Amino acid sequence: MAKQLEKTVKELFKWTSISLVIGTGIGLLASFFLMSLALVTKIREANLWIILFLPLSGMLFMHLYLKYSRESLGGNNLVIRQGQGATGNVPWQMLPLTLFGTITTHLFGGSVGREGTAVQMGGALAEATGKLFRVNQKDRWLLIICGISGGFSAVFGTPVAGAIFSFEVLKRAKFKGTSLVVSLLTALIANRVATLAGATHSLYQLGEVPQTTLRVFGYVLVFSVIFGLVSRFFAFSVSFIKKLYQKLIVNEVLRIGFGACLVLLLAGSYGTSRYLGLSLPILSDSFQGSQPTFDFLNKFIFTVLSLGAGFQGGEVTPLFEIGASLGSLLGQLSQLPVGFVAGLGFVSVFAGATKTPVASFFMALELFGVTAAGWFLLGSFISVLASGKKGIYESQLRKIS
């Protein structure tokens, strides 16, 4: 009895310490990352000519990846595989490569997100922390869980969603309550440290939420299916463009340079830089109903071309924007409150693409409050059902060992 109690206390102390180390580390890294993105976005918008360096930037970082850590090109899928029990590890080189690679991609206008960088930094930091605390192979998956939850939470300011996302994205439906507590503790610490270090997170106002009527229920049902189909087509398009680029251009360095040139040509033909970088004005405009009609389609195209070429950064923020802008358009067409349908699209497209309906629901609660909770829960699950088996993370299809 005494020995068992001593063992439990030691394990509790160990995992609390691990949560503190990972949470603090990823919180500081995420704060630096977010503030850097805000800075380079201002620099790019004030000096638009620098987007001409996007091909060179992409080629330089692809060269660095290939020279120092080709394995790190696996990105989020690599982290997910490790969390599922795959052999190998998350290389430490992933952290600086994805951090500075994403910052420079945004500086020069690549249309990518930021969640991927946070998850990958979290995975690399968790791997290093595991070696420090001599975590055995059996418990290694929980390290990755902590890294993912901390990274997601610190970047988006949603610790509960981050903790749940880390389990859902790894397809770990069964878990001990203690592991969820460890994940949540890491997420809370990461979010708090990031905030104290200067990171800021956006909050959006839904505005009016419609009353529950058969008409509203019908629209939400149809819109959620549409959001699921959009997320399905997004995942297919990124995969298709990657394979097409690989078939056309074997050399990875030349491939990303070619892809960057296509992005620049597209931006030039549009005569706007709205869809370069994070494109955060798309979100604020969508919730106000003032976005251009085809914002969702344009951001979709720019993001698919950027990710397909090999740029790192992630898909989640673009998915938010695609969903919100499409939702805003559907709200205007259906005469439902625009902010409400934009929020539904924001959450549902993310859910369908990542196959994480529960995390998406809790993210909606953390970002938008509880006034539309039932609708967002419905939208998340319907979108996942409509989106099919495959999502943006191919590693989710693996069987957990």
From TrEMBL:
Give the highest taxon in the source lineage: Bacteria
Q: Does the keyword Nucleotide-binding apply?
A: no
Q: How does it sit in the membrane?
A: Multi-pass membrane protein
Task: Return the GO cellular component terms, semicolon-separated.
Answer: membrane
* InterPro entries in UniProt: Cl-channel_core, ClC, ClC-type_chloride_channel
Q: Which PANTHER family match?
A: CHLORIDE CHANNEL PROTEIN CLC-E (PTHR43427), CHLORIDE TRANSPORTER (PTHR43427:SF12)
Q: What is this protein called?
A: Voltage-gated chloride channel protein
